[in-house]
TrEMBL record, chain A:
Location in or out of the cell: Nucleus, Nucleolus
The protein's name in its UniProt record: Nucleolar protein 14 homolog
PANTHER family in the record: NOP14, NUCLEOLAR PROTEIN 14
Biased composition (Polar residues): 320-330
Entry keyword set: Nucleus, Ribosome biogenesis, rRNA processing
Gene: LOC108565223
Function, in words: Involved in nucleolar processing of pre-18S ribosomal RNA. Has a role in the nuclear export of 40S pre-ribosomal subunit to the cytoplasm.
Automatic annotation (TrEMBL), chain B:
Protein name: Nucleolar complex protein 4 homolog B
Residues of the CCAAT-binding factor domain: 290-438
Taxonomy, superkingdom: Eukaryota
Species for this entry: Nicrophorus vespilloides
Family: Belongs to the CBF/MAK21 family.
């Protein structure tokens, strides 16, 4: 019995498998065909040296008979019968055996994996043909309201009452009929009446019923609050009785839990974050300062051997190669000293940190509080201090990396401290005063300002307002229209930036006297923080508008390249240094402004007092721009030299050479008489437009400022190898100045500077310029092509993937060929089957025809015989 | 208002009068009116224009033409008398107009020149007297006073010369001017104004024929039989130059003279080697003059086999800090590039040049530093021996720069033992473009020289424009909020300035 459950079983493979076991028979020598070998190769495995053509042909035939033939037979037939009854086709089984086999099959089916755990599902119990589960549903059959009183037969709605039925349907006999003289018609009418009455009654009762229910409902509703109240009270009482443990437990259970991110930041954390941010920014700034391209050159490889494999294996040549040896019981390698030193260093650094802290405290008042707290928390919070130490270390290494001489930071420090003595006090006072003013302004002004739509509006708003008022107005304007509040605010603030620039230029336009200049710088000072905020909010627009301004101013200057432009240019340049990172190697705003400043210093003629002041302002601006990057600007040093030259008395016939645009003969800054004291060491902004002629006070101031700036530049340039050459001219001029005429402090600092310059010239070490050594290029090595096993075949040397692919392609080709052959044989087989069928049907037909002929012949024969018989008989008659 | 209307009116009136006069002889006296008005000195320009109009049309219609038949006495007809009268007025007017070239107002002077030239052109086409048609007629007697006026002007006549230059595109004008010049050249020492005017005119004159070959004094059909004789022009040039060389020169005129010499005259001189002494003297003056002289000497050396012993020392001495503020620095760089292009020069000398340039770069304007860096790079490329200045063979350190800046002889300056520390320092220049240019010493040198000619004319404005055009995505902002206008760190301004 073949199970047709699985169609696969019917395919060629299965048949083949079945026959495989049979094939393991001993070969019949008559069936074997031996393939002749033409060239014999030793060690070659011969697969096809012999074959069984007859057997294999028979095998193939058999296979086709089992596979294609049935398919052919059922082709063009949409369905077929498969008898699944067990043992039905098996004739050897009796009826009993069949039923037993079937029962076992059912039992087996129940113990299949699926149902192995369904313990109760074995048998389904039934009652009267219905399963018990069905019966036990206990479903409440819905009764209609009409059927409510079905029990009462009288009132059965649809049905007629029994008396009526008795009378009307069955006649009730002759006797009864006589009593009532009712006709059939009357009866029917009565019937209708009665049924109508009954219906109306039922309706009525139903209505009453529903009314009653409604009433009950409403009453219940009235009662409801009383009932619930009483319940609540009971509950409350119960709650009061709840013991403490439960309470605590519940409290613990329902206590609001905060997510980890919501952890409150302590002041320290905030400070630390702030510091991290600043540090990160500082790091980025330093990177930009070096310039991206420079990196490759600056990262020097300390040591590279010719055998270096470029595998980043660093030979640590920094650590000195000291072999450990003992001399008089002491090792030559210092073991703990280093640590001690490090500790010392750390202490130093800590001190420095503290110093810096103090400095920052004194310098910026605004963040006083925060800083204080930070320093107080310092004692407790060790990690922060450590971080600080690290950062300080970084800066220290930075200094060293920048090829600074060791004495440089010290000098820096001293300079700073000197500054600290003088300036912070004043600045502090100034700031305090300003703060107060701001506070006042804050109180006076309204709190919200709309952004101006055009420049005129802004002008109107700021007109005739004192500078601190203007500052507060802008500040509030920015706050009210912060980009986070509304979509288009960012662009609007960009416009505001441009308007403010215009405002600045307008103020500067009508500078007439010193008061105006002061006012102008005052407004500028108040506005700078606002400019800064705006630039932070919208860097793109602000940088673009500032660049446009520079472009315009430069184009104006270009027309008259020997004249200094107006004062506003200074303000814009100063603004550039406040808003942008000036230390970048190349910066969109800073670099053009530096080019502009250099141009002015190189070409503009410094004839008048205002010109000299203007030039000195530019030089100090350049100094500010290069504070962090410590770059070298020839133009500013040249200009300072020119100023110094102007202060040299030209008594001798011999000309003192000076570079254009300064004149050989100009001596407007020469101090003719001795001046004992000078009270004001700084230049005034009013000098920028002063039309007065040079006076002694200005001369001293100018020389003082030039000297200070020269010192500053010298300290910046000291790491440069040609520093003495750069300052050679300045040295010459300085030594020719009439020192005796200057106040004592000034001449003292002048002398000290001269000494430093001289010292720098005499004690210097010039490292010869040496190009970075390049790694020699290794010769290319060719590896010998070694083949492991020689097997006469030429193996293509190709990649693994390619080989795999080729193999597969070859296989496909082979399989394809085989498949085509098989298909051809299948077709031949089917052709044979068809022709056989045809032949068979032909023979059957022939047989039939023959038979018909034979029958006809015999019939004819009988007929003929009968004819003959009749003829004979008639003749006989 | 009235002032504006007045000249309009007058020019209209003048024009009307001229038209009437040309229209019929009845109004011939109008001419006298115009001349009288011209004499008053007011409204010179309209008068000149009117006179120009009258005489050009008179010349065109040959109304002043007087036929002179030989051996026949002049007839005294009214017609001839009228013509003679016209001619007399014409001469008078011409003289006055030429006189106007001296006019203080350049506008009037230029107008007078243009009118004179126009009248002269007409006279050339329609001569006053019968001429044979074979030879080309140039009215020299008209041209001479003009040129004389230009040269002997009381003030600088640059405007006139510029106007005059417009006529020099005509070959015959050019040739006539060349012909005239020798007679106008002063034999003794003239004043500076004369020299300047003369030299300016000479600068405009070219010796070779113009390529268009247009002719000023041609008939209307354009027929002419003028042949430009370059040899005779050249002869005049030599003549003129021989005189010029005898003049005593001031510093300004000397510069101009050298420019003219270099750009116009030098190639056409018969004996250029005669200039050697002059150039050598000029070389010692210093500044731009010596630079120009150097260029002249270079030409002599190059094309006339002059052997000048100490030329490189002279060139070397020219590299002074002042040179960057003159107009001639591009020329100097160009020249020294040429001088030092030979690869057979002694290395220590070239090294001296490189080192000196590097020193100068420390104080030079930024655009020049870029040129200098390229220049030094080129020098090292040409003379591989100089590589020791970039890459010292032994390394080590020195206490002082071995190079002696003050030494005037480049060979003795000991530059070859030095290193280019200056370029190294310039890598810290404040401008990124300069710092980048100075970085060439860090990397291996390229195989091809830098093209200096491209950057020679760069100015600091160009650097500015380039920096403005640079497109950066990153806008780096400061991160310290300023208090007032004081920065939290790096505040310099407040140290030196009171606000």
């Amino acid at each position: 019995m073949v199970k047709v459950k699985n169609k696969k079983r019917n395919t060629a493979e299965s048949v083949n498998d079945k026959k495989a076991s049979k094939n393991k028979k001993v070969l019949n020598p008559f069936e074997v065909h031996i393939n002749k070998e033409k060239i014999r190769v030793l060690g070659k495995k011969a697969k096809n040296d012999r074959g069984l053509p007859g057997v294999s042909r028979a095998k193939a035939l058999q296979k086709r008979k089992n596979t294609i033939l049935p398919e052919y037979k059922v082709q063009n037939k949409s369905n077929q019968f498969t008898d699944k009854r067990i043992g039905e086709k098996n004739r050897s089984l009796s009826a009993d055996e069949k039923s037993i086999a079937r029962y076992t099959a059912v039992r087996m089916n129940q113990h299949k994996k699926k149902s192995i755990y369904n313990l109760a599902d074995d048998e389904v119990l039934t009652h009267k043909g219905q399963t018990l589960s069905e019966i036990e549903k206990f479903e409440d059959v819905p009764h209609s309201d009409d059927d409510d009183d079905e029990v009462d037969g009288q009132r059965n709605s649809g049905r007629l009452d029994s008396s009526f039925v008795e009378d009307a349907h069955f006649g009730g006999g002759m006797l009864k009929k006589a009593d009532g003289a009712k006709s059939h018609k009357d009866l029917i009418e009565q019937l209708i009446m009665e049924s109508k009455k009954r219906k109306a009654e039922m309706q009525k009762q139903k209505m009453a019923n529903s009314d009653l229910t409604d009433k009950l409902d409403s009453e219940w509703k009235d009662l409801l609050p009383i009932v619930t109240n009483s319940n609540k009270k009971e509950e409350e009482l119960a709650a009061a009785k709840v013991d403490d443990y439960d309470k605590v437990m519940r409290e613990l259970k329902f206590e609001a839990r905060g997510t980890p991110s919501d952890k409150l930041k302590t002041e320290d954390d905030i400070a630390k974050e702030e510091k991290d941010k600043l540090e990160r920014l500082e790091r980025e700034r330093l990177e930009r300062m070096k310039g991206n391209v420079f990196d490759a050159a600056s990262t020097k490889i300390v040591h590279r051997s010719a055998d270096d494999l470029d595998d980043n294996f660093a030979y640590d040549s920094d650590t000195p190669d000291v072999t450990l040896s003992y001399n008089d019981g002491k090792s030559n390698v210092p073991m703990e000293d280093e640590d001690k030193e490090e500790e010392n260093e750390n202490e130093d650094v800590e001190e420095e940190v503290e110093e810096e802290e103090l400095e920052t405290e004194s310098e910026d008042d605004m963040s006083d509080l925060k800083e204080d707290e930070e320093s107080s928390s310092e004692d407790e919070d060790i990690p922060i201090v450590e971080a600080k130490v690290l950062s300080k270390k970084e800066s220290a290494t930075k200094l060293i990396n920048g090829k600074h001489k060791l004495d440089e930071p010290e000098e820096d420090e001293t300079k700073r401290s000197k500054l600290d003595i003088k300036d912070p006090e004043k600045i502090k006072e100034d700031l305090m005063f300003r703060k107060e003013m701001m506070e006042e302004a804050r109180k006076e002004l309204p709190y919200t300002f709309a952004l101006p739509e055009n420049y005129e509006q802004l002008q109107e708003l700021l007109k005739d307002k004192p500078s601190h008022h203007q500052s507060v107005i802008i500040e509030r304007m920015i706050k009210c229209n912060h980009p986070s509040l509304k979509e288009g605010n960012k662009d609007e603030l960009g416009h505001l930036f441009a308007y403010l620039l215009q405002h600045l230029s307008d103020i500067c336009c009508d500078i007439e006297d010193c008061k105006d200049v002061k006012h102008c710088f005052d407004v500028f000072a108040c506005m700078t923080p606002q400019f800064f905020d705006l630039a932070q909010l919208n860097p793109e627009t602000s940088h673009r508008s500032l660049i446009e301004v520079f472009k315009e101013k430069q184009a104006e200057y270009r027309k008259k390249p020997t004249k200094f432009p107006t004062v506003e240019v200074l303000l814009y340049l100063k603004l550039g240094s406040c808003l942008f990172s000036t230390s970048d190697f190349r910066h969109l705003v800073v670099t053009p402004s530096l080019v502009f400043m250099e141009q002015m210093l190189t070409w503009c003629k410094a004839k008048t007092r205002a010109n000299v002041a203007y030039g000195l302002f530019l030089v100090s601006l350049i100094a500010e721009y290069t504070t962090l990057s410590k770059r070298y600007s020839p133009a500013s040093i040249k200009f300072l030299c020119g100023i110094l030259h102007m202060a040299i008395p030209k008594v001798t016939v011999r000309q003192i050479k000076v570079l254009p645009p300064f004149k050989h003969i100009s001596s407007s800054l020469v101090l003719a008489e001795q001046v004992e004291t000078f009270d004001n060491p700084k230049l005034d902004v009013t000098d920028l437009i002063d039309v007065k002629d040079f006076d002694d006070a200005f001369r001293i101031k100018a020389i003082n400022v030039s000297l200070g700036l020269l010192k500053y530049f010298h300290s910046n340039c000291q790491p440069l190898s040609s520093c003495p050459e750069i300052f050679e001219t300045a040295f010459n001029y300085l030594s020719q100045l009439p020192k005796e005429n200057y106040p004592e402090s000034l001449s003292k600092s002048l002398n000290s500077f001269l000494e430093t310059l001289d010292e720098g010239k005499n004690n210097r070490t010039l490292e010869y310029v040496v190009m970075e050594k390049k790694k020699p290029k290794a010769l290319r090595l060719y590896e010998p092509n070694i083949v492991k096993i020689f097997d006469r075949k030429m193996h293509k040397s190709q990649s693994k993937e390619k080989a795999e692919r080729d193999k597969l392609l070859h296989k496909i080709k082979k399989e394809k060929k085989g498949a085509i052959r098989e298909i051809r044989r299948d077709k031949a087989f089917l052709g044979r089957v068809k022709i056989n069928q045809k032949i068979q049907s032909d023979t059957v037909r022939k047989e039939k025809v023959k038979k018909i002929y034979a029958e006809a012949a015999s019939q004819q024969c009988a007929l003929n015989a009968m004819d003959r018989y009749n003829e004979v008989r008639s003749k006989k008659r | 208002m009235s002032q504006q209307e007045k000249p309009m009116k007058i020019s209209k009136v003048l024009r009307q009068k001229a038209q009437e006069m040309l229209g019929s002889r009845k109004y011939a006296n109008n001419l006298l009116d115009i001349m009288r008005h011209f004499d008053t000195g007011a409204d010179t320009c309209p008068c000149i224009l009117t006179l120009e109009m009258i005489f050009t049309s008179l010349l065109k219609s040959s109304e002043m033409f007087i036929e002179i038949v030989p051996l026949k006495p002049m007839e005294r007809t009214a017609e001839i008398q009228y013509r003679e009268w016209l001619k007399q007025i014409y001469e008078e007017a011409w003289n006055k107009m030429v006189h106007c070239l001296d006019h203080a107002s350049p506008k009037v002077a230029t107008q007078a020149l243009a009118s004179c030239m126009n009248i002269m052109a007409h006279e050339g086409r329609y001569p006053l007297e019968p001429r044979s048609s074979q030879e080309h007629y140039i009215p020299f007697y008209r041209l001479k006073p003009i040129v004389m006026k230009i040269i002997f002007n009381r003030q600088s006549s640059a405007h006139l010369i510029n106007k005059f230059q417009e006529y020099l595109v005509y070959d015959d004008m050019l040739f006539a001017t060349w012909k005239l010049l020798p007679s106008l050249t002063a034999k003794t020492n003239p004043n500076d104004v004369y020299i300047m005017n003369f030299l300016m005119l000479l600068e405009k004159l070219q010796l070779q024929q113009n390529t268009e070959g247009s002719i000023l004094f041609s008939t209307e059909e354009g027929e002419h039989n003028f042949i430009y004789d370059e040899n005779s022009a050249r002869k005049s040039l030599n003549k003129v130059w021989n005189c010029v060389m005898l003049w005593e020169q001031g510093p300004v005129t000397l510069k101009q003279l050298l420019i003219v010499l270099l750009e116009r005259v030098m190639p056409y001189l018969d004996k250029p080697l005669m200039l050697t002494d002059f150039l050598m003297d000029a070389l010692d003056i210093g500044g731009p003059v010596s630079l120009l002289a150097l260029q002249g000497l270079f030409t002599l050396i190059q094309s006339h086999n002059l052997d000048y012993p100490n030329i490189f020392a002279k060139l070397y001495s020219m590299f002074e800090p002042e040179i960057f503020h003159t107009k001639f620095k591009a020329r100097l760089f160009y020249l020294s590039d040429m001088f030092l292009s030979s690869t057979h020069l002694p290395e220590n000398m070239v090294a001296a040049f490189a080192k000196r340039l590097a020193r100068l770069a420390l104080i030079a304007p930024s655009e020049d530093i870029i040129i200098i860096c390229m220049f030094i790079g080129n020098l090292i490329l040409r003379h591989p021996g100089l590589k020791c200045m970039l890459n010292h063979p032994n390394g080590g350190s020195a206490t002082n720069d071995p190079y002696i800046m003050e030494e005037r002889d480049p060979v003795k300056s000991n530059a070859i033992n030095s290193s280019l520390w200056e370029i190294q320092s310039l890598q810290n220049h404040v401008l990124p473009s300069v710092a980048m240019a100075a970085r060439f010493i860090n990397t291996p040198l390229p195989s091809v020289e830098w093209d200096i000619t491209k950057v020679l004319d760069n100015s600091s404005d160009d650097i500015f424009d380039k920096e403005i055009k640079k497109n950066h995505k990153l806008i780096a902002l400061a991160f310290d909020r300023p208090n007032g206008c004081f920065l939290n760190r790096g505040e310099i301004i407040s140290q030196y300035w009171n606000f």
